[in-house]
Design goal:
Blueprint: H1 2-38, H2 45-69, H3 74-97, H4 109-120, H5 123-146, H6 166-241, H7 250-282, E1 288-291, H8 292-309, E2 313-318, E3 324-327, H9 329-345, E4 352-359, E5 363-370, H10 391-396, H11 404-414, E6 418-424, E7 428-436
Parallel strand pairs: 2-4
Antiparallel strand pairs: 1-3, 4-5, 5-7, 6-7
Helix pairs in contact: 1-2, 1-3, 2-3, 3-4, 3-5, 4-5, 4-6, 5-6, 6-7, 7-11, 8-9, 9-11
Length: 437
Amino acid sequence: MESNAFQEGLVERLSWLIWLRWLAVIGALLTVLFVRQGLKFNLPGFPLYVIILALFIYNIVFFFLLIRVKKKSLAWVNKIANSQISLDLLCLAALIHFSGGIENPFIFYFIFHMIIASILLSRRHSFLQAAFGVLLFSLVVILEYLGVFPHYCLRGFIISCQYHNPLYLGGVSFVFVSTLFIAVYLATSISNRLRQREKVLEQANEQLRAKDRIKSEYVLHVSHDIKEHLAAIQGCLEPVVAKITGELNPKQLDLIQRAVHRTGKLMFYVKALLEITRIKLSRQIKMEYFSFGATLSEAISGVTGKAQEKNITLHSVLEPSIDKIRGSKEHIQETLTNLLANSVKYTPRNGKISIVVQDKGNRILVAISDNGIGIPQIELPRIFEEFYRASNAKEVERDGTGLGLSIAKQIIEIHHGKIWVESEEGKGSTFHIELPK
């Protein structure tokens, strides 16, 4: 698991490097055009453009290679990483040679590449790449000095060419090489420390997940047992309330009805606890295509009676282009019903509730708005936490599990969607749900 996490991180960083290389291609092309056309430096255009083209082509190759290598081993991903860095250094050395050699200030881009290598690679491979970079740099400097390679002087940028000045070559080379290796040492030290810390945190997170699974399994078993006992109590109370066991005097009937009422509330709470625990443990639900419009209508029908009792207006708008979506019909309907029931519960008499469903291409956006009591601003970040209820909600209705919104969040996230709320105390709330089709 640790290896998979590291591999995923490396692939992500390599993707970032590929996008960075696109910027490098554009930057190199614009720089060459500016230097040759704008500053009129006498630099060979053809080889410079060929190098930039090569950079462009192998970046495309690595882009598609990275898509395929995601399913391969970590060793393959490391080979891709090393190959990219090596080719980058080779291209940089070639660009430097054809644009001034040691006189070109862009030689210090080698250090930039070494820092990237230190982030991507192990310390050993980072130092090997640094040695390769120094070798390429040294070959350019020495071969130009010996006259084996022609030197392209940046006349106009410098007063006189320095490629044949041993003192200048030695001084710049010493600073360049020492800075390069010091940069690799510091970058790899920081990178290794961060990786070790990341490993410790991942292990701690895994332990927390394991403990959370144990806790959830325990809650599941206990809740199931409590539900069975409650069902048995309800089975005993219902015949008494129905007077099957005989007539009751008013005081007896009142006590029994209170017991039935409390037992019903407790059963509702236990069922909610079982539901959220099952979702947390499985993280999987059966997915199939279903009509979202029909599901929304059923959810609205489920709260229409209570809305009419409070003379609350329910208004819904569903864009015609929205048809079937893939998901769990029962769970989506449960979520919509729960949100609508909350709106009805916390909206005063003669209030309004609107449901707007918009088509967003491959996703749909649901907005359920009311002009109810709203949620205090300071409590909004905690509203989807388990067992949490807003302070003003407790004033409206004392009883409540505090699990409804948490269950909704779990369900929407399993569908790879998002749920959030916008609210102002005393003015109402709007719950947003974004779902993939």
